[in-house]
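Support case: 5'-O-[(L-methionyl)-sulphamoyl]adenosine complex. Customer-provided input:
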Amino acid sequence: MSKRFYLTTAIDYVNGEPHLGHAYEKIIADVIVRARRSLGEETFFLTGLDEHGQKVEQAAVAEGKSPQAYCDDLADIWKGFVGKLGVSNDDFVRTTQPRHKEVVQAILSKLHAEGHFYKRLYEGFYSTREETFLTEKDRRPDGSFDPSYGEVTRLKEENYYFKLGDQQQWLIDHIERNPSFVQPDHRRNEVLGFLKHNVLEDLCITRPVARLNWGIPFPIDTNYVTYVWFDALVNYISVPAAHGDPGILSALGYQPSSINHPLSLWPADIHVIGKDIIKFHAVYWPIMLKAMGLPLPKQVLAHGWWQRDGEKMSKSTGNVVDPIAVIKEWGVDAFRFYVVRELDIASDGNWTDEGFRHRYNSELADGLGNLLNRSLSMLRRYRNGLVPPVSNVLAADAERVVAETRDLLQGNRLQAALMTIWSLVSRANQYVEQTAPFKLAKDPAKAAQLDEALYNLAEVCRVLAVLLWPFLPETAARIYGQLGLTGAPDKFSEARWGGLAAGHAIGTPVALFPKKET
Ligand code: MSP
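Agent response - structure generated as follows:
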């Protein structure tokens, strides 16, 4: 059994409707995993929902539903959402599933037996919105707490704690020795700065049932439920455990009830997350894994946050971008294209409707769409849709772009990869202007030149379909279909120049991205 390339996203809180931020994370994860698949790796892609905790409980109460009924209703919406984004996940975890809860409890029992936990009284501040304890250090110079914490109350309660005291130095060493463990670099520096300038406080891993009921029962003491973050992070290994990952099962001494085809997944190759939850993934999660005797993930990749028109998106302002509405109007690939092309993973982004329309019209409709449409229309008109003999005028341009795209995909530089691919789109559109096949067609003496131009244009479109597949899977398949090719353009090796054979009959050209008046 060979280990698969294993990629995860954060699991979303199920206390509202999905928005642009959630969609963005899933799309970049999907592009990364499709690229690996195209490059020949076996992959496993996990996403899902974080269903426990106070926020979810409160949202359920506000709707007059039990937390489980509330989660079940919303889970259908979220699963449908993932499907509409064209995301190719292999599994969808819900933290209320028995397969997940059992693993969380097994881990808690094991870590408790090994002496990692202790119980103590806490007296201090608590933010319900963030479900977190606050200290004097969290106060701002004027004594108040950041509004992002919501209402902060005083609290006195006994809880179980996970000892973090001796863990700081090895983690600093690990992050320093493995520069790719936390990416991008500025986030890595942020984590190192935090670890070097603060003493890690032990992590409170329970909440009393008397205050919060909606959580995984703490197996050591029935008066408590498990802290939602301890529960949620474990999804990254509970799903592999349910699929029979041998390393996880032996480390935890756990055996799930039925496994048909065991998969080897752990360690994760990439956890794709937003910048706001980096501390949980780059500090607490590695410490939890080390305590369990499991290897650390190879990479935590933190993306930036989206705003709209320069402002934070929020329901109250009414400025939330609804991905489904955009997809209905413009198509899923137009949405995928915009969010990946607009910003580098490392940076924050700003959605504007105008910017979206501009990229749609100039890069998709006038750029890629126009190239395919005129290339195929001319091939039909002048050569009855039959591909002329192989010609290599654009081969070197294509080969350069193929090589650059491969490197960029391997480094998860998605925006840069799209820019490189579009340099080939522009080169080919420029080639149409230079060769002017519509003029060559008028002169029978220039038949060989016309053949050459038509071959190069059709072949560039074929190569583009293969390069674009991870980003725009639907469009790539449509390009293949219009070229009269069967199967999906999902193997990077097919991007080699010269794939279209002389005499091959292409299909009917249909506009990929109809131009819209704005
Ligand atoms: N449930 C936790 C994650 C647990 S992972 C073990 C959580 N959920 S969330 O629903 O609040 O956020 C889910 C993901 O969406 C996070 O990675 C977060 O950074 C991302 N985004 C939420 N809003 C966003 C933007 N406005 N822009 C980009 N991503 C954003 O945190």
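The pocket of 5'-O-[(L-methionyl)-sulphamoyl]adenosine is lined by residues 10-13, 21-22, 24-25, 50, 232-233, 273-274, 276-277, 305-306, 313 (CB under 6 Å).

Case will auto-close in a few days if no follow-up is received.
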